[in-house]
C-alpha cells in the first residue's frame, strides 16, 4: 500500500540534486533550513528509509534509548537494563528493549524496527549467531546513518563504537589464582566454545593463571560446552557432561566455571559423587546472579557488576547524543569494568 | 520545532468536515480511498496525534507487539516475555518491551511512546502504583483509539479487555491444604499488602483452606510486607521481619509465602533458628523461578506457568489484531491458567 521512494525520486520531485537530498536528510549545515524542511517533510510523507534504517535526524529527537539483548531470562542482562534505566531516567530518557534471541536475523530486524524513528541510539550486546557469522554490517550502517551505538559485554574489534566490557581475562585469572593459592592441584575449567568472546577471554585467564604457577594445562580438564539457547531445557545433558569430567579426573579438586549455572551444576555433581564442597572440591563461578548468593553452599564468584555496566553504557550513549561534535571527529572509548572476587562458602 | 496540529486544522486545510477527518483517520469504510489517503498523509506529515496516542490505522500495521511490564529483574516476567516471543515469532510478529518500574507515570509515558506508530497492540501487566491510584484512563483511551490490549497477571475489573490470569486463589488454597494434610497445625502466611491483586487473592486462598479445615486464622501468623521496588536491596530488612514472625510464633510449623524470595528467606530464617526444613517447618512458595529448583532443600512451589501465560496472551492479541470484527461487537475473554503444586524437598 505504501509507495517506496528513493533518494533519486525525492531529488527529481523537489528539483534538487541527490547530494542535496542526502545532506538535507543528514541535517547538514550546508543546506538551507527551508530546503531541509522541504526534503525532510517529503521523505517523511513517503516513508523514505535509507537502506531500511532511518536517519536519526537531530530535530526528530525521541529521547528514547533502544536496548538489544540476546535473551531476557538471564539475570546478567536484566541487571544491565536496570543500570541503563537508572541513568536514562535521571537524564530524561526512556528505554525500550528488543530481543535477538541469539539470532542474527532477529537482531537485524529489531534494529531496523527501532531505528525507524523510535529511538535516538542503541545499547546492545551481540547475538551468538552474529559472532559466529562475523557479519556486522547492520551495526556499521546504523552508525553511518548517524545513530550511535554503545556495545557491552560481547564486543568485537571490527565494529568501531563506544564499548563497555568486563575485565574477563583478569577476572578469570584472579579466580584461578585463588584456587591455586587455596591448595588446588587439579583445576578444571568449564567454559563455552571459543566463538563467544567472553568465554574465550575467561579461558585465556585460566590458562595464564596456571602458567604463572608452573602448572601445565591439561586438555582433559577443560570442558567446552556448546551452548544452546536455553540452559534450563538442557540441564540434564549438561549435568552428564560435568559428571564425566569429574569421573575421568578423580584427582580434580578445583573448578572454575565461566557462568553461574555451570558452577552450580559442578557443585551438584560433586555432592552426588560424595565429594564435599569446599573440603574436597572448591568451586568458583563468574556472574552477578542471585543463584550464587542463595545456593547451599553459597558460591564464590567473580562479580561482573552488571548494573554498573548498564549505567556506564547509558552515560556514554547520552553523552554522545548530547555532544556537539560531528561524527568526523569521533573518538571511541572502551570502558573496562573491573571484576571483584566475592568469596563465599564454596572456597576455603 | 514541529507544528502541533488539530483535527480542526486538518479539516480546514483539506476543506472537509471534522467528522470526515476523524473517520478517515480511523480508516472508516464510509470515506473514499482518495480522501482517506489525503487525510492520512496530511496527518502524518504534521505528526497529528489524537490525545497524544496515535491511532493504529489498519494500513499502518507494524506487526509488532508492545509489552509493558513492571520490572525486568524478575524471572516470572521474563518467562512471560519468552512465551509472548515464541507465539509472536511463529505468527510473524516482533516484540518490543517497555518497563514501568512499578511507576504510574512511566507506564503512561511508555504506552504513549510505543502507541505512536511503533506497535499494533499491547500485552501488559500493571504497575503497583497504577493499582494503588486506581487510574486506568490510559488503558481505556488506548483501546478507544483502536489499539487492543491484553492484560496478564495483575488485572482489574474496571478495564474491559482480554485478560490472562493465574488461578491465584485456588493455587494458594491447594498449597495451604497440602500443608494441613502434611500435619501442619500453625501455618504462617507471608504475603504483600492488599493493593497487589495477586497478593490479595493468594491471601484469600490461604484463609479459605484454613476455614475448610476448621482452623481459625490468627492475625499474628499473617505477615503483610510492604513491597519496595527492589527485593535485593531490602533482603536484610525482610529477613528481620520474617525472623520476628518465627520468634513470636514458636509453634509455627508451616509457611506459605506468596513468592519465591519470601519462601527462601523463611527457609533461611528457619535454618538460622536451628529448625529443620521440612521436619520442623514445611515451606511452600508461589513462583516459576529458578531459585526454587536450585535451593537446598529445593522448594515446593505453586507453579504459575508464566511462559504459558505469555503464549496465551500473544494468541489472544494476535487473534484480535487479525480478526475482521469491528470493535462494537467486541467480546472480551479472561483466560485462567491453572496452577500446579510442584512438590520438592521443603515439604514432607
TrEMBL record, chains A, B:
Residues 5-59 form the HTH lacI-type domain. SUPFAM superfamilies: lambda repressor-like DNA-binding domains, Periplasmic binding protein-like I. The keyword Flavoprotein does not apply. Keywords: DNA-binding, Transcription, Transcription regulation. Gene3D superfamilies: 3.40.50.2300, lambda repressor-like DNA-binding domains. InterPro entries: Cro/C1-type_HTH, HTH_LacI, LacI/GalR-like_sensor, Lambda_DNA-bd_dom_sf, Peripla_BP_I. PANTHER family: HTH-TYPE TRANSCRIPTIONAL REGULATOR GALS, LACI-RELATED TRANSCRIPTIONAL REPRESSOR. This is LacI family transcriptional regulator. The lineage of its organism: Bacteria, Pseudomonadati, Bacteroidota, Flavobacteriia, Flavobacteriales.
Amino acid at each position: 500500500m505504501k509507495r517506496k521512494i528513493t533518494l533519486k525520486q525525492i531529488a527529481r520531485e523537489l528539483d534538487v540534486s541527490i547530494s542535496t537530498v542526502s545532506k538535507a536528510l543528514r541535517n547538514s549545515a550546508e543546506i538551507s533550513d527551508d530546503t531541509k524542511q522541504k526534503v525532510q517533510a517529503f521523505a517523511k510523507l513517503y516513508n523514505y528509509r535509507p537502506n531500511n534504517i532511518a536517519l536519526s535526524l537531530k530535530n526528530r529527537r525521541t529521547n528514547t534509548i533502544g536496548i538489544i539483548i540476546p535473551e531476557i531470562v538471564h539475570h546478567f542482562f536484566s541487571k544491565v537494563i536496570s543500570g541503563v534505566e537508572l541513568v536514562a531516567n535521571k537524564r530524561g530518557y526512556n528505554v525500550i528493549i528488543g530481543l535477538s534471541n541469539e539470532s542474527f536475523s532477529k537482531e537485524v530486524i529489531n534494529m531496523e524496527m527501532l531505528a525507524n524513528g523510535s529511538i535516538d541510539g542503541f545499547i546492545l550486546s551481540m547475538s551468538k549467531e552474529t559472532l559466529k557469522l562475523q557479519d556486522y554490517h547492520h551495526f556499521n550502517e546504523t552508525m553511518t546513518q548517524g545513530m550511535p551505538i554503545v556495545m557491552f559485554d560481547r564486543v568485537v574489534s571490527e565494529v568501531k563504537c563506544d564499548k563497555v566490557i568486563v575485565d574477563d581475562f583478569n577476572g578469570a585469572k584472579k579466580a584461578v589464582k585463588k584456587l591455586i593459592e587455596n591448595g588446588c592441584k587439579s583445576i578444571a575449567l568449564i567454559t563455552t566454545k571459543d566463538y563467544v568472546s567472553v568465554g574465550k577471554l575467561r579461558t585465556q585467564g585460566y590458562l595464564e593463571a596456571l602458567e604463572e604457577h608452573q602448572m601445565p594445562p591439561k586438555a582433559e580438564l577443560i570442558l567446552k560446552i556448546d551452548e544452546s539457547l536455553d540452559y534450563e531445557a538442557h540441564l540434564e545433558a549438561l549435568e552428564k557432561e560435568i559428571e564425566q569430567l569429574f569421573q575421568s579426573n578423580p584427582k580434580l579438586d578445583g573448578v572454575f566455571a565461566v557462568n553461574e549455572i555451570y558452577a552450580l551444576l559442578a557443585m551438584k555433581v560433586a555432592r552426588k559423587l560424595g565429594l564435599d564442597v569446599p573440603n574436597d572440591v572448591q568451586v568458583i563461578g563468574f556472574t552477578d546472579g542471585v543463584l550464587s548468593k542463595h545456593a547451599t553452599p553459597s558460591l564464590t564468584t567473580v562479580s561482573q557488576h552488571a548494573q554498573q555496566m548498564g549505567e556506564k553504557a547509558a552515560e556514554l550513549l547520552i553523552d554522545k547524543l548530547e555532544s556537539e561534535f560531528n561524527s568526523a571527529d569521533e573518538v571511541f572509548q572502551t570502558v573496562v569494568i573491573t571484576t571483584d572476587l566475592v568469596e563465599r562458602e564454596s572456597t576455603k
